[in-house]
Amino acid sequence: MQGKSPFLAVCVIKNFLRKVI
To answer: Model pTM greater than 0.70?
Structure first.
């Protein structure tokens, strides 16, 4: 999952930020 799909990582990070904020 590392350096395999940057798009997926961005999606996950965005979702996490949305949940945190």
So the answer is: no
